[in-house]
Amino acid sequence: MTDLAISATGLRKSYGDKTVLDGVDLRIPAGSVFALLGPNGAGKTTAVKILSTLVSADSGEVRVGGHDLAGAPQAVRAAIGVTGQFSAVDGLITGEENMLLMADLNHLSKKEGRRVAAELLERFDLVEAAKKPASTYSGGMKRRLDIAMTLVGDPRIIFLDEPTTGLDPRSRHNMWQIIRTLVADGVTVFLTTQYLEEADELADRIAVLHGGKIVAEGTAEELKRLIPGGHVRLRFADPSAYRAAGAALGEDAGRDDEALALQLPSDGSQRELRSILDRLDAAGIEADELTVHTPDLDDVFFALTATGSTGSTASGSTTAGIPDQPKEAVR
To answer: Containing domain of residue 252, as a range?
Structure first.
């Protein structure tokens, strides 16, 4: 609980008779990447707007950057930066002028503003385009400028609401590297995204929001273990070793006689792998190849956000991904 960049307890928000957030709890350590996943309309953007003081919650206790959200919103604003789904870049002025405008809004002196703007333009590889109207920038350049503008006030917590939407694969990967660099500098990143690969690549912890609730939370690997379908595949070069392994592993093992391969259900945990290998060792058999297959985040996302799955697919929500729990406890 120490060094939390963001904490929320019982966060609720409704619009009319539609409940968007229904008792959301968050604990996000400083200097980490936290990804919030969910289908369109799940409440991801609403959560970002509340945590960044743009919208008031109906109820709940929230602290951001060590400050109480309700009691000290100005202190929260001073600690954060926000990059929304749609670029805040003004296309009618140059990239440099956009940066200097942000410096003015952050009450930097003219000299300091120019220094900070120049440093960030160089850091984000925008020096050559700095004097050109931002309307001439590519999508990736606009996104880089957007984040550079966010960093003018040196925030320690950054909210990135679907930052790579609409970018080509190369620009998306460039943005990932920027995010990794920010975190290496001690910045906390709160990321919402529709790209599951993005969360898998970047996030230290991932939460899935559905029906106004966090239905599961954990590392990417922990979440993947929530979904049945994982297995271990053992391949043998020697037919006699294959037959002996099949006898040792019993009816649990599916057989592929042509490939000399056995397949056993597994959540991919170290405990289960050790158990399988111990059974082979006891029979004096060694597999030539062992491959662990686990569901990916697409499988997790679809399973947890299927109609009617709220609160049932992943019992215990925020503890559902703990790998030391018995398998039955997390299905």
So the answer is: 231-293
